[in-house]
Amino acid sequence: QDSIFFWQDRLVLIPAARYTWIRDDLEGGVDAQGASLNREANRDNYLSPQIGLQVRPRPWLTLQSNLARYVREPSFYELYGDRGFFIGNPELRPEKGVNFDAGAIFDVQLPNSWLQRFTLTTAYFRNQADDLITRVYDSRGIGKSVNISGARIEGVEAGLTVEFFRHLRAVLNATWQDPLNQSDIAVFDGKKLPGRYERSYLGRLEARLYGVMLHAEYIREARMYYDTANLLPAEDREALNAGIAWVWRSLKLAVTGDNLTDERH
Fold it and tell me: Which helix (H) or strand (E) holds 252?
């Protein structure tokens, strides 16, 4: 990766390339039904180019865009499951696709005592994928990762960060996306992708004083399906998290609590 600067650093070009070499050996085992798995060996490699562009027409405004080709190998958990509520799928193929995003950052610093800085971010994103890896669940709640031959995930994201009273920071973030199934199977083509929320919201409040930081955050995710046929809609997910951290030089100690209301979905 390199960063190339133009026009007194107001334009930055960032070309990059990632090379991945895969060695995957299956010595043996059994599948979810108890059948023996054959011994397999897999070798593969990928070259994933990408390029980024950043422009600063004003000190408080940054425009940026990225374009990248990627390959994602299935994880060990996706391939072999946990022998409980998630079944492995050793026949998963790598997910391949192209990511694109374009957005703007408005960053304003203010010299008053009650409001020091606010940052507004906006972005459009699009992911075009082949053999997308996602999770589906049956009526019993048993999950499994599968490949979907084609998919398009398109949406926008907006965020706002406000620093005020010198020790407080508030963060708001929202994502709206359209996860479209473009499967070769006609009955699933045009449906929503399983396992992908269409709406996501986050609110977070932080307080910092003498190296101690407290935070509380609320997360809400809505409009998702468990299955490729879109017959099993998921309930909206809500979570309340909180934590405390202490920083001293290069040392950081933190304690966090997730899903404090003990919601299950």
Answer: strand 251-257
